[in-house]
Specification:
This protein has 3 domains: about 240 residues, 3-Layer(aba) Sandwich (Rossmann fold); about 80 residues, Winged helix-like DNA-binding domain superfamily/Winged helix DNA-binding domain (Arc Repressor Mutant, subunit A), CATH 1.10.10; about 80 residues, no CATH class. A hairpin with a 2-residue loop joins strand 4 and strand 5. Helix 2 crosses helix 5. With about 425 residues, it is α/β, with parallel strands linked by helices.
Length: about 425
């Protein structure tokens, strides 16, 4: 399941609205697509006012009035009354028969789609390549992580490429935390996401409430409601990623399409975590994305084999604990502009991470106990200091305290018990 990591902007942001279309011609999609959608919507409700129908389709009253006049002429619906000056519509038996046929073709009901051309234009306008990332932006986004200035500069420079980054290094060094923090650099800049896109008469749903978080912003009431103002999206996929998830997915029952993960991540970030451990082979993914990473366009397949072109305007983060040279050839690695190794932390960083973890969990942090934990990890366990160790050790201490029905305390005995439970040791190795 794709996951979202995003932060809502702290203040309202005035946003330039997309003007709402005032006629069927201005909507930008074939009239038949709108008529079919309106009739299916009316069929489900049975009876609606034109204002209610406009709200459900996220179109203006004028556009819906134009559609309904045609319906009444064709005897697909009839006037059942008035609410003030607003007509109340009821679907006729002829309309129901027509709607039933339409549902057999596809069952999409909801916001009217935008055109493929409008979608491509908007995505290009909102490209992550147009962002300028500065030191203050990076410091804000990474404030909860302990990283040195050199690492922060590398990450900020990579963000300005608006392209891709390869994070590699041993397990537990914080690659996923760094990847998700990168999304917070983008999060304060909202973008428009369409509910759906129409291509060749087919509907592709894009907006996903599990992925797109609506931005806290002042939006004009006259904006085109087919678009949702959201924080720049961040989609995270891991070992569950398959080659099928990178193409349009059609539901055999509803018969409309769902956008693939990279299309949902457009204008934001896509994090491929644990790269190399997916069910698809690394070279499959890399071959699939040679063109998109290079040319910023992607090709998706409709049922029947027709291919459509969509923008590929996102920041891609690959995170892996495998050897990069064994995952990708030189030609592909050249297309990933920045490669950053995330390695063990220093003694000073380990102390600071430990202090923050204890502070978050309300524990007193004894520097002498932290020093002892460092000595045990490095000298007895022969392990490098990893960013994950402080929280994992403190969690062991908390769980043990909960079991023993006492308050957790970071002392030497608790530390030794936590280390003993956490690290893999030889049976004859006793560090007590």
């Amino acid at each position: 399941m794709a996951s979202l990591y995003a932060v809502k902007p702290e203040t309202d942001i005035p946003i330039e609205p997309i003007p709402a279309p005032e006629s069927v011609a201005e909507v930008g999609v074939p009239r038949t697509v709108l008529e079919d959608l309106a009739l299916k919507t009316l069929h489900i409700a049975g009876s609606l006012s034109q204002l209610e129908l406009a709200a459900k389709m996220r179109l203006t009253y004028g556009v819906v009035d134009e559609l309904c006049r045609r319906f009444r002429t064709d005897q697909l619906c009839e006037l059942s009354g008035m609410t003030g000056n607003v007509p109340q519509l009821a679907i006729t038996s002829r309309g129901r028969a027509r709607a039933t046929d339409l549902f057999a073709l596809n069952q999409y009901v909801g916001a009217a789609p935008v055109s493929a051309e409008s979608y491509a234009h908007m995505v290009r306008q909102q490209s992550v390549r147009n962002l300028e990332v500065h030191a203050d932006d990076v410091l804000r986004a990474f404030s909860d992580l302990v990283l040195d200035d050199r690492m922060l500069k590398k990450l900020g420079t990579a963000m300005n490429s608006g392209s891709s980054i390869f994070l590699y290094g041993p397990s537990g060094t914080g690659k996923t935390s760094i990847a998700t923090a990168l999304s917070r650099v983008l999060s304060v800049d909202p973008v428009w996401i369409p509910f759906a896109v129409e291509v060749e008469g087919q509907i592709i749903t894009v907006y996903d409430r599990n992925v797109h978080i609506q931005a806290n912003a002042n939006i004009s009431q006259s904006h085109d409601a087919r678009w949702v103002l959201c924080n720049r999206p961040t989609v995270l996929v891991g070992g569950e990623l398959t080659i099928e998830m990178l193409d349009l997915q059609i539901n055999p029952v509803t018969k409309f399409y769902t956008a693939p993960v990279q299309m949902k991540a457009n204008n934001g970030a896509l994090i491929i975590d644990d790269f190399g451990r997916q069910r698809l082979r690394p070279e499959e993914l890399l071959n699939r994305w040679v063109v998109p990473l290079d040319r910023r366009i992607d090709f998706l397949n409709l049922a029947g084999g027709k291919s459509i072109e969509v923008p590929f305007e996102l920041f891609v983060v690959f995170a892996t604990n495998l050897d990069p040279s064994e995952l990708a050839d030189a030609a592909f690695m050249r297309r990933i502009q920045t490669k950053i190794k995330v390695d063990a932390v220093s003694r000073q960083q380990f102390h600071e991470i430990f202090r923050r973890v204890c502070s978050d969990l309300g524990l007193a942090c004894d520097p002498d106990v932290v020093d002892e934990s460092i000595d045990i990890i490095q000298n007895q366990m022969k392990e490098p200091l990893r960013a994950c160790h402080p929280r994992d050790i403190v969690n062991q201490i908390r769980w043990a305290a909960s079991y023993e029905e006492r308050e957790p305390c970071l002392d030497r005995d608790a530390l030794l018990a936590a280390v003993d439970a956490y690290f893999v040791t030889d049976s004859d190795d006793n560090h007590h």
